[in-house]
Amino acid sequence: MRRLLIWLPLALFLGFIGLFASGLFKPDDRVIHSRLVGQPLPVFSLPAAASDRPALSSGQLATGKPRLLNIFASWCVPCAAEAPQLEALQKAGAQIDAIAIRDARPDVDAFLKRYGNPYARIGLDARSAVQMALGSSGVPETFVIDGKGRIAHQHIGDIRADDVPMILEKLRAAQ
Amino acid sequence: MIAETGLAALWLAASLALLQLVLAFAGLKGGKPDLLAAVRPAAVAQGVLTAIAFAALITLFMRSDMSVLLVVTNSHSMKPWLYKFAGTWGNHEGSMLLWVTVMGVAGAAVALFERALQRNAHMATLGGQAAISLGFYAFLLFSSNPFARIDPAPADGQGLNPLLQDPGLAFHPPTLYLGYVGLSVAFSFAIGALLTRQVDAAFARAMRPWVLAAWVLLTLGITAGSYWAYYELGWGGWWFWDPVENASLMPWLAATALLHSVTVLATRDALRAWTVMLAVVAFSMSMVGTFLVRSGILTSVHAFAVDPTRGSFILGLLALYIGGALALFGWRIGSVREGAPFELVSRETMLVVNNLLLTVILGLVLIGTLYPLMTEAFGHKVSVGAPYFDRIAGPIALALMVAMAAGPLTRWRKDQARAVGKRLLIPLCIALLVSISLSLFAWGRIGILPFLGLVIAVAVGVGSLAPLWKRKLLRTPLFTYGMVVAHLGCAVSLAGMACDSAFTVEKLVAARPGDMIQTAGWSLRLRQIIPIAGDNWTALQADMDASRGGSSVLIRPQSRFFASPPTSTSEAALLTRWDGQLYVVLGEEVEGGRWQLRIWWKPFVTLIWLGGIMIALGGALALVGRERRGWLLKWRAREARL
Q1: 20 to 30 Å CA-CA from B426: which of A52, A63, B225, B493?
Q2: What are phi and psi of B595, to 5 degrees?
């Protein structure tokens, strides 16, 4: 027993070294995908984030038609960069709702005024609680929600112009 | 020439370290005193040479010598002198040079000033110190040469990350490194003790001042870093559980445990193997921390040198030193005799409880920090954030605080449970009173952890003064005061943390010049937004009058823009009052000429850092007290002989 205890630290340490080595030589890929893809949305109800758009709750995302749920924030620069693509998606017929993360209403209003407002509803997630529940690790992210309120697809990072057809395809597939 | 002098000094120091290592172990093995006689001069010369190399790098930065690659990539001739100076260690190579300099100077100090240790153990310790230094010299010289030249030399440098352009940079990294690397002395002591099989009270008494000194500096470094992040990052938070913060917290936890177990070993000759293990773990945690920061293996806001080659080099050093030390421990500790036994109710037991709780927190922080790495090895990706650490480490830390109040009130060797309970009566009553009044005034408004935190902080604060109760204050030894001050500091700091999370008021507004804002008893008037220019930045500054009934004070939050490298930072305006801090950040302009302002009122938040300073001061008092007592005893012995 005593012998075992004496050698235990060394054994533990060798385990750590193996772990470090494996982490060090692994290809660098730090994208964290939500484990909720294919699962129903968590239940939530958020207050309105903008003065001219209604509030958002999870029930309103299960309308029988697939929708996009965009996670953004007025303080986020890539979110401003993806605004034209969201605009294009909306023109192509996508219904887009949004959750503003760690934000305040005057800021969201200013952001929408400056970069355009493609959203039907916007919920305010002041402490990232819903974002965490969704398994989203940053802004911007966009979820494809099918008609029954299940997460069909998660797009991490800003939507580039060449991502738009892919997102539309995912929306069609979620029908 | 200066760069070449620095590089030559480094190579010489590395060769001396090799010589020191060989001399020490050949001398010990063969029993040759003439070989051993050269060990101490070698250690001292090494310390001087590393100091010369470091001074050379500082000179290069101060002169903005753009023929040196490191200066080009991290400095700019227009930078204020303080940041040229501090910029020396605001980068990978410079900070590693600071690391080996501290190690070399600490080795020289051990060679010069260590008198309590038996000669063989002293030589083995210096040999151990040389062995560790050697690895870091190799790292510096082969993969991170700070003195590399660039040809042709560019006209000017690329500048220093503006977040680092702050007086905090001049103070935080050096103190932290002094603490980190100071722990290498304890590590070498442990190696020396294992090699010579001398683990006893005398060993503990010799090691204690070195541990105390490193711990004091580490405490100061962490406190300074926390305050720096608090005011510079502009988020209003003071601890983010970022991997790099954890990397500094883990050695501190281990060193705190070591500090207490070394006292048990010095006073009662118990906990021998455990103390040696902690001495190994403390510096190992420093090295693991450095590895985590320097390899970029964990994503962190501090990861400024992402480089797998350097990562593998440090990993090799880790495997060699920590693995070697743990193997030596396994091999030799069986032959160390069991220490003295003690009763269940005794100061020793309380200190074991302290050690266990500290070790559990250390383990949990380590697991939380490395968990993303572990799950990644199995194909899942997760990130571990503040909720885990707060929920897991918080309650244990509170239990530790309770043990901290009880420990000093328990007698060494053997005590009565009832007597201890009696001594704890006053703190218990106070805890009860505080919980009742808090429940009456703030029930439902504050969370359970801040609630318990406040109760325990007040009770422990009073309890920590109890060791002075009914004692002659002038005859009480200085190190007892040290303990009291340090424990009181823990309570003060806890009170600050609990108040901050329980009572902080946050307000976000968009205001036009002339607008009045009311929050948490303060009235703020936005006077104007004006552009101003500094040495190497321009800024938009909000002039605001803040008042709380009486006369108003001008505060000036800024949003700064740096040209090289192009970045912007926000300089929060802090207004410190006895009962808290007003923290104002200027954001962007929104439509209609209005400006975003984020305002926090944080009651008693400054106690967090005041507590940290008190903890360090307590450590310093203990250090001075113990040393002074040692001199006095020696002096009296000499008098008696005459």
Answers
A1: B493
A2: -120, 140
